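Section 3.1: Structural characterization of target chains.
Under the original work plan, the team committed to producing a structural model for every single-chain target entering the pipeline before any wet-lab resources were allocated. The record below documents one such target. The sequence was received from the expression subgroup and is listed exactly as submitted; it comprises 126 residues.
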Amino acid sequence: MTTCLLFDEMPVIRKVAERLLERMGYTTTVFESIGAFNAHLGEHGAPDLVILSATGGGVGVPEAVRSVRFRSPHTVIVVSLVDRNIGTLMRLRRAGANGILMKPFDADGFKGTLEVHLSAAKLTAA
């Protein structure tokens, strides 16, 4: 089964995203802190998909992206943002993120965004 690690500081986002990912066929592990995410990553390695909140805790997200990318060049990393801050976007892309997911999202937007990045990653790997 396809695996996903999801970090978001907002409980409602974690709950909704986990349900949507389940419908898409993902086994998802959710985290409410970037520290817990990093600890799990260190113990279990990188999954197929990672979704990280760029606003979670204010620090550590670019480092988490780099850590995932170092462990697994093929893991798809999507970072969720509340606003389109070009500086944040560039830092996350340079760190290795595949793309962004804008919050708040609806089911169609969530699925569509992930499908774009997952398809692009498959084409790049081929």
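Residues 76 and 87 are 21 Å apart (CA to CA).
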